[in-house]
Amino acid sequence: MKRQDFYFDLPEALIAQQPAKERRDSRLLVLQGDGTVKDARFPDILDFIEANDLLVFNNTRVIPARLFGQKATGGKIELLIERIINDTTVLTHIRSSRSPKPGTVLNIENAFEVEVIGREEALFVVKVINNNHTALELIESHGHMPLPPYIERQQEGQEDSAADKERYQTVYSEKPGAVAAPTAGLHFDNDIMQAIKNKGADIGFVTLHVGAGTFKPVQVDDISEHVMHSEYLEVDAPLIEQIEQCRARGGRVIAVGTTSVRSLESAAKFSAGKLQPYRGETDIFITPGYQFQVVDVLLTNFHLPESTLIMLVSALAGYEQTMNAYRHAVEQQYRFFSYGDAMLVFPPK
């Protein structure tokens, strides 16, 4: 298929710049198995969850990965941490007037210093120097939440707010390492999480540390030629057991977010026959024609035109059904992207 097949006209006014007043205040578009769509509110998701189901959430925690500073010459720089390698070293994007060379020392937030020690393609390897705190501790203390590029207040030079520090994070986030939120989970509050359990459904967790590559556009015309970014994930033994129990009782595996889909399907991809735990990298690229091994239903936000994520949704729901649902969402003025509304996706009957 061609990249242009996944284009749709999105008015800029529909790109959500702020979260809803309360997490559960979002709207919910339900794309049903017969291709019809239903307009609902997010708490209505409970009507579509059955007692035997298993909902799988991504418990990654967004780190405040944007940091500002300067070179010894006084030139301004901006870092966007891509990955924490160890207690002293990170892999990062660096924005500056001139790319710093290995050996360059950078002053970060007037609080600590780092040294550029190498390159990995477009990214820089940076090490904290002369400091008793770990890289993660320094990032947590001095960094800013890495709001997506389409949130305009960031482009206008405004910093993240106190509200962003709370709302650009799921209520069940646990393992720090992401530089972008698994946004389908942002709609859940503690009451809805409890209501799911009260219905008798099970809840499980994967970990996928979302990288900045999630915003990388598809630039080739033939999507089969796109090189997918790589991200670290963990699918552990307790979740595998929950999936097996779900299957045994006739339930469905409902993935909360595309990152949960990528985690579960990656574990299946790397298993020889029977689903096994997996920890490591994945660059899985799910497009129409893909045969799902684990996921039955998907909850997700609305994604960018021509993005790898709308391609993933199309793989589960069907291409025509997905594009029709997106056209409906635009007509009905749903809110798009990270702080936007949600979509519950069932595969074709």
UniProtKB/TrEMBL annotation:
Gene3D superfamilies membership: QueA-like
Keywords in alphabetical order: Cytoplasm, Glycosyltransferase, Isomerase, Queuosine biosynthesis, S-adenosyl-L-methionine, Transferase
EC assignment: 2.4.99.17
Matching InterPro entries: QueA, QueA_dom1, QueA_dom2, QueA_sf
Associated pathway: tRNA modification; tRNA-queuosine biosynthesis
Swiss-Prot/TrEMBL GO biological process terms: tRNA queuosine(34) biosynthetic process
Subcellular localization, as worded in the UniProt entry: Cytoplasm
Family: Belongs to the QueA family.
Summary of subunit composition and partner proteins: Monomer.
NCBIfam families per record: PRK00147.1, queA
Name of protein: S-adenosylmethionine:tRNA ribosyltransferase-isomerase
Organism: Thiomicrorhabdus xiamenensis
Top-level taxonomy: Bacteria, Pseudomonadati, Pseudomonadota, Gammaproteobacteria, Thiotrichales
Gene name of the encoded protein: queA
